[in-house]
Amino acid sequence: MLILDLGLNALVTGVVLGSIYALVALGLAITFGLLHIPNVAHPAMVIGGSYAVAISNSYGMDPLVAGVLWAIPFYALGVILYEFYSRSFESRGRGNTLQSLTLFFGISLIIEVGLVVAFGTDLRSIRAGYIGHSLTVGFIVMPYRFLIPAALAPVVIFLLWLYMTRTNTGLAIRAVAYEERALQICGLDPAAIKRHAFGIAMAMAALAGAALVITGPIDPFAGRAHIGRVFAVVVLAGMGTIPGTLVAAILIGVAESFVMTFLSPSWAPGVAFAILLATLGLRPNGLFGALR
């Protein structure tokens, strides 16, 4: 009976963690999955969003409200960042993978150093009325600081999926990486579409940052723990598959939760890398790549 209770708790915990992972990986699903830009700085950008939300929270603002408000300036920052990337590489025909990785790795380091200079290396947390309380159903106890961000993820993913599939701009974003010439023939500017898409990805980073700082304290280097995980989610889902991101993230979250429960918590960080390697070797298109 104890094994069953532990297994059920691990399953619920894994689903909740997976939903949070999906929100953290959502911006990368756009930049890497749709635009084919290997934005390894995305987890650092999420932590930047966490710090922005923490600043607003220090003035009494709810972290979720702060995350929505910060999504606007983060969108503008994403537009500026893509413009710099485009002018430096794509417009000159030099946007290869190695140069892109180097650029975004440098941006990641700049973000981390900037956060250290501005806030130090101490852990930073937030305050909210629901933090410190839990939902108890039978023998399952789940803190609201995990449940609320986990509930936010499906809502954001559903709204983004509607935007990508029901609007002309969303359809253009999905097409730009594969039919750029066709978009030009239709009179659309592929660079403007990519700029907009990168802005949306950065806005998602602000929302993910709000979710992450609700779950627990963060420091400037917290994004490093999520680099392998978010790439594993995007690849497992299938490049650019927005709804599949949630499914893939939950699978990884459940796998990590079972490893932590029945083996050792120290093994959990390797789960995402193992799944990433297995996906690349056995199913490179991901679980839902054909459904994109």
Summarize the structure.
The chain is an all-alpha fold and 292 residues long.
Describe the protein:
The protein is 71% helix and 3% strand. The chain is an all-alpha fold. It has one domain. The chain has a two-stranded antiparallel sheet. The mean pLDDT is 85.
Write the layout of secondary structure elements.
Blueprint: H1 2-31, H2 42-58, H3 63-88, H4 97-119, E1 134-137, E2 140-143, H5 144-166, H6 168-176, H7 180-185, H8 190-215, H9 227-237, H10 242-262, H11 269-282
Antiparallel strand pairs: 1-2
Helix pairs in contact: 1-5, 1-8, 1-9, 1-10, 2-3, 2-4, 2-8, 3-8, 5-6, 5-8, 5-10, 6-8, 9-10, 9-11, 10-11
Kindly list the characteristics that best describe this protein.
mainly alpha; 11 helices; two-stranded antiparallel sheet; globular; single chain
Numbering strands along the chain, what is their spatial order in the largest sheet? 1-2
Helix/strand/pairing class, anyone? mainly alpha
Strand content: under 5%
As for the number of domains, it is 1
Number of strands: 2
User: Any idea what the radius of gyration is?
Assistant: 19 Å
Note the overall shape: globular
Q: What characterizes the major β-sheet?
A: 2 strands, antiparallel
Helical amount: over 70%
Distinct helical segment count: 11
